[in-house]
Write a structure and sequence with these properties.
- It comes from Hyphodiscus hymeniophilus.
- The chain is an alpha/beta fold.
- It has two domains: 10-111 and 262-302, Udp-n-acetylmuramoylalanyl-d-glutamate--2,6- Diaminopimelate Ligase, Chain: A, domain 1, CATH 3.40.1390; 117-260, NIF3 (NGG1p interacting factor 3)-like (Udp-n-acetylmuramoylalanyl-d-glutamate--2,6- Diaminopimelate Ligase, Chain: A, domain 1), CATH 3.40.1390.
- Helices cover 30% and strands 21% of the residues.
- It has helices at residues 10-22, 59-68, 92-103, 112-116, 121-130, 176-187, 239-247, 263-286, and strands spanning 36-39, 50-54, 72-75, 106-109, 143-151, 163-175, 193-195, 210-220, 231-236, 251-254, 299-302.
- Helix 7 links the parallel strand 9 and strand 10.
């Protein structure tokens, strides 16, 4: 007598399918990244049709998902980044994965596929820089050009505009202080790291420097090195990369790595994923492909405990 095979819950599978439609894994930078379904946990009774979004899958986030009885975690940064030789309870990340598997909670990571996708993270951060936000209903586009720094080669259909990093050239220059205020408000942070060329006084220069072009890259901004722009906006840039930028007359604004990414979950991904899920599940139900007895109601929430490991004091 054969045993029934273990399988992921129908809802978790629907989330994976929806994420792959929104942010195809072929957009990810496979030279270093590890995107996709990282933990396929066998379905367990009692879990809700709910996906929990987070930037980092920490012990606290795992505790949160278990307490909430979520079916799947969508973690922007992959919790499994390199090949594993063992899975033990001593390693905190592996401990979380083992506990999640035991509870039936799967884990999916889109990472750089979200960076590259049109309307994804880099476009979201670029929108913040130019003042295009959901709260700004009177927004008037001041951008004469928005371009991709590194286009995706052979992108899938409907993703021809995908690529890493963005450059925006403003039709009318903006002061550095105006852009700093926009970025702080858009990211929901009180502090940013700002570097200006040494020909300007660090404190008073922000109202004196006018910016006509901006290079944007969420997370680590090394790809911005050498760009012919006035300002680099990113999550982090190394000490020497920052020195090289200001020596070449550029300004730098950095927000800490994950602070340049986290707001996207609440402001964009939550609603976009929920809409795609509702559409997909309704279509599956209509075609008779949704499992009998499984509720069609679903939810997408953002972690309350996920945060950047650094704080300014």
């Amino acid at each position: 007598m054969s045993r029934p095979s273990a399988r992921m819950s129908p809802f978790s599978q629907a989330v994976v399918t929806a994420m792959r439609k929104l942010y195809p894994e072929s957009l990810a930078d496979k030279s270093f990244d590890n995107t996709g379904l990282l933990l396929e946990a066998p379905s367990r009774p009692g879990l809700k049709n709910c996906a929990l979004l987070t930037i980092d899958l920490t012990t606290g986030v795992a505790d949160e998902a278990i307490a909430r009885k979520d079916s799947i975690i969508v973690t922007y940064h992959p919790i499994i980044f390199r090949a594993l030789k063992s899975i033990t309870l001593e390693n905190t990340q592996q401990n979380s994965l083992l506990r999640l598997a035991q509870e039936g909670i799967s884990v999916y990571s889109p990472h750089t596929a979200v960076d590259a996708a049109p309307g994804g993270l880099n476009d979201w951060l670029t929108d913040i820089v130019i003042g295009k936000t959901a709260e700004n209903q009177a927004f008037q586009d001041t951008v004469s050009e928005r371009s991709v720094i590194t286009p995706i080669q052979s992108p899938p259909e409907d993703f021809e505009a995908a690529g890493y990093g963005r450059i925006v050239r403003l039709s009318s220059p903006q002061t550095l202080q105006v852009l700093i205020n926009r970025i702080k408000n858009g990211l929901g942070v009180q502090n940013l790291s700002v570097a200006v060329p040494q020909t300007f006084h660090q404190v008073q220069a922000k109202d004196d420097i006018h910016i006509s072009s901006v290079g944007v890259c969420v997370g680590s901004g090394s790809m911005l090195n050498g760009l012919d722009v006035d300002l680099l906006v990113t999550g982090e840039l190394s000490h020497h990369e920052t020195l090289a930028a200001i020596e070449n007359g550029k300004c730098v604004v950095s927000a800490f790595h994950s602070n340049s990414e986290r707001g996207f979950l609440e402001q964009r991904m939550k609603s976009v994923l929920a809409k795609q899920l509702r559409s997909d599940i309704a279509e599956m139900e209509m075609e008779g492909n949704w499992e009998d007895g499984v509720p069609t109601e679903c939810a997408v929430d953002v972690s309350k405990v996920d945060r950047d490991p650094y704080e300014t004091v």
